[in-house]
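[scheduler] slot 2 assigned
[scheduler] job type: sequence-to-structure, two independent chains
[scheduler] chain ordering preserved from manifest
[runner] begin chain α
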Amino acid sequence: MTGGAGYIGAHVVRAFGEVGLPTVVLDDLSSGHAQFVPEGVPLVRASVVDTAAVRAALAKHRVTGVVHLAGFKYAGVSVQRPLHTYEQNVTGTAHLLEAMAAEGVEQIVFSSSAAVYGTPDVDTVTEQTATSPESPYGESKLIGEWLLRDQGRASGLRHTSLRYFNVVGSGAPDLYDSSPHNLFPLVLDALTSGRTPRINGTDYATPDGTCVRDYVHVADLATSHVAAAQALASGAALDPVYNLGSGDGLSVRQIMTTVAQVTGIDFEPEIADRRPGDPARIVASGEAAARDLDWRMRHTAEQMVASAWDAHRRAHGTPA
């Protein structure tokens, strides 16, 4: 599992362990954490751009399938660092596929992103919605999907790509989101440091004027990775892409209100200007994934926030 020491990857590793599927993690720890990898799970510290290291890991551990979560995931930063983004996400995926072909590994689940859609012109995104990425990150994820498609045509590689939306929460108290760009850690960091969380823009064409996003719990996401890998291993037919979305969004202000309720910290968010390129609403249907990948929303907004808050406090030594 590439990127298995990261926030999402570590949850996927544990979900595999819960059903008795052995894993090996390959991660360069540029944003992951070695302590996220469970005891007994091998950790290979290497980058996916290092084809020789990937081949060695595949061979040594007799890998039969890959879940590819490694990558540079910051859409905003990718605009300033396009070459780095393409190297990690496009070149890295190409090298991984090269190593897999050399070692006879013929199935892969790919971590894609809602960023492939850009600013959709529909209320609810489906897998048939046109892709129009607006950042090097979104472009790199779409190219990754193309690489899998083309390698599948050329070699028979069995694959599927899971398009994530806003992944939040925690499935275990020792696993937390350490991203400096995601809403939940930004809000929780602000509260624990005595600052006031910020809302960027309150004049959008949404019910309360703030952006609406599709928030999904990381443990639910992990469960569908297990289902996808098991389906590929069994020879079941899967679609090339799936949206892991709720079908219903929450506004940024609704998240702030829920955070105040769950944490017991009463606050009124600061209001700032809109961020360039932020669409008013991105919500996706998860019907196809529900049909094929055991996808469903098992957590309420309150449970998402509470699990993230518990993990955040543990990581930062904040008393309950």
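[runner] end chain α
[runner] begin chain β
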Amino acid sequence: MKLTYLLPLLAAQAMAQAQVQDVQSVLQATDKFRMTAENLQVDTQINVLNADGTPDKERRYTVFAQAKRQSLVVMQSPAEKGQKVLMLSDDFWLLMPGSQRPLRITPMQKLLGDASTGDIATMSWADDYAGKLVGEEPCEVAAKQTCLHLSLNATRKGVTYQRIELWVGKTRFEPVRADLYVLSDKLAKQATFVMDKPAAPTMVLEMVLADQVSNHKTTHVRYLSRKVRQVPPEWLNPMFLVRNPALD
């Protein structure tokens, strides 16, 4: 009798483990549409629109997204020139020109509009989240397309969002849209992703963030260019960056 009860339990556990592995494989494929190589230089432009659609602000950033969850964000607009954000795993620092010390910040700290440091510095999900497949659902942005709905929970403390409801293409697993929840499980933002070739996508060109909490502004994060680049190790050292060196 014990074996009769044990077999269904073991089968359920095996199915659950297989689903977890499948979700991680999907996330790894999804990540490649944003992080097209292990080490990248990504020129990024952020445009913020007010709730009525009128322009608010615009900023430019150079993001050096590196392997092992390391990123350096260099601010390029005149209003922020010389400022940098460094991400090393769960640790974030803001480096200000003229300051003698790097300042600890959180991944939720705003850069511009509703784009946080984590939104700009992090371009992958597979290393930070685990979850389950909810099922197949129509994609809102393309009624004829069927998406896989993934429910993701953070596995690290230094992530921007504690939970993500993510919809990806059923065939290629490209990101389509996401509901982004903070630690209190409040829906903070809704993201949609603009692909280079809707019929046969290869990379994300733009992420659009719609505020769901307060100002209801829309923030467009445009990836203007990507190129493979591994930065020197000292660029990922906050004590080196605090000297405000020229980064060429």
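[runner] end chain β
[qc] chain β: Confidence is low (pLDDT under 50) at residues 6-21.
[scheduler] slot 2 released
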